[in-house]
Amino acid sequence: MSRSPDASIAIAAHDIAAWHTHTDVLVIGYGGAGACAALEAAACGAEVTVLEVASDGGGTTALSGGQIYLGGGTPIQNACGFSDTRADMEAYIRIAAGANADADKISAYCEGSLEHFDWLVNQGVVFNPEYYGGKHTNTPEYQSLTWSGNEKGFRESQAAKPAPRAHKPKAFWEDGGATLMATLKAAVARSPIRVETDTRALALIHDNGRIVGALCRQDGELRAFGARRGVVLCAGGFVMNREMVAKYAPRLQDATPIGNPNDTGGGILMGIGAGGAAINMSEGFVSVIWYPAGAFCEGVFVNEQGQRFVNEDCYHARGGHHCLNQSGRKAYMVVDSTIFTEPPLYAAAQVKEVGESFEELERDAGFPEGTLAATMATYNRFAARGEDPLFHKHRDFLRPLDKPPYALLDFSIDSGIYYPSFTLGGLDTTVDGEVRRPSGAVIPGLYAAGRNAAGLPRSGEGYASGFSVGDATFFGRRAGRTAARNS
Ligand SMILES: Cc1cc2nc3c(=O)[nH]c(=O)nc-3n(C[C@H](O)[C@H](O)[C@H](O)COP(=O)(O)OP(=O)(O)OC[C@H]3O[C@@H](n4cnc5c(N)ncnc54)[C@H](O)[C@@H]3O)c2cc1C
User: Fold this and answer.
1) pLDDT in tens, 401-458
2) Same domain membership, residue 140 and residue 233
3) What is the rounded CA–CA span in Å between residue 310 and residue 317?
4) In what helix (H) or strand (E) does residue 103 lie, and over which residues does it extend?
5) If you measure from the C-alpha of residue 59 to the centroid of ligand 1, how many angstroms do you get, rounded to a whole number?
6) How far is CA 410 from CA 57, 202, 321, 417, in A?
7) The CATH number of the domain where 12 resides is what?
8) Is the separation of the CB atoms in 35 and 188 below 8 Å?
9) Separation of 44 CA from ligand 1 center, angstroms?
């Protein structure tokens, strides 16, 4: 076989003329999920080989902020003075995951959260028992604990006592992901795990329906890697594959894809080619950022009808989701001079209009008469009492906007403001990482984790930082363990 095979068709083992090598567990992709799958499979006594298309491991996990969603009373939560329970964490994630939530995965994740914290520490991950309480996209310095979602939101806080659960490995600002992957790779280097870089997996190999290896391109040749116990797909999401985005998640098309260049969905396509079901494929994280500074949460989002549509203190992915949902995808933020002079405006939104009154702002920006001004009058009337009966913004951010001049900041996607996005769909897997067929039956020998699978994060609207790296590392371990025990 000399031509590149089609990922969407698994190859029969009897068509393989010569096997390049064999191992017990073959892990495809050396990011967060792959590193953890390999470490756990090796700890179970399996011979493990990891294949990575790039020249080094890391993947999107290394580019990430490194926040890991952990709770139920971790040593870092306790040291920072927060109490948390598994039940509150589970109730929160159930709401956050939305209608497509996988209750079994959420339950397993919350039950295993403290053990997972300990496991990460045992691999060498250092968490710093310092808390950052401001509104930010990550902890701005070396603090390891912060809020990362909508835990304090009205609906969420009624169902679950809020607690900060984003745990960033000790690292400056956004370096948490690079630090996490450097630590996991060091753990892999101490183990007998074999890592082969510059190796692209192209298609899975099956023997009467059981997955027994993968055909790869390495050193310019097609090589068959055999797997006695199983193949674990950990090759990331598909946001860089614009054809797949157009087909499965068209809502993300105009947003800016973020991740590593190999987020092309190859692992998902290979899984589909072997008979696996792909689910949750239309969901994605889409954000627009208006904080820091936290003072911008005192601003008021309006649509082109001059109406509010979201609580402005929410997590930025919820804001991005709702801004994109407005008619014409038009969204603006009203601020007064107190907020506007608060440097810096992280989001770099353009000023669309400035006015000495809301009526002037409304007229000059072209809103129908009595719309924006009425919205602001209502907002200010309740905010003066510390109330937001429409969207339940937390009273910490409720203040009448009454210091002119007022400005209208443009958060519409066509204004050029940054809307980062990545995908949340993937192969349908059991809680132990086995890939399911559309019928629900599992495919023998095939496992998946991280963004190759549909895991913990199922909803862009409910997303919290830490869900993805938490999911990739936690369920990567489970998939590696299950594969290693497969005989
Ligand atoms: C800027 C940014 C910040 C983020 N911050 C956070 C955060 O703080 N917390 C959080 O939870 N989430 C965060 N995320 C999301 C999170 O990083 C990812 O969803 C998660 O790390 C994915 O892990 P993974 O192991 O599935 O994939 P990856 O880490 O991307 O690993 C996949 C690996 O597979 C390799 N690969 C791909 N195709 C093949 C192939 N055919 N053959 C061999 N190898 C292949 C890739 O090169 C890559 O190394 C962030 C994302 C971005 C882009």
Assistant:
1) 999 999 999 999 999 999 999 999 999 999 999 999 999 999 999 999 999 999 999 9
2) yes
3) 12
4) helix 103-111
5) 5
6) 39, 44, 16, 8
7) 3.50.50.60
8) yes
9) 25
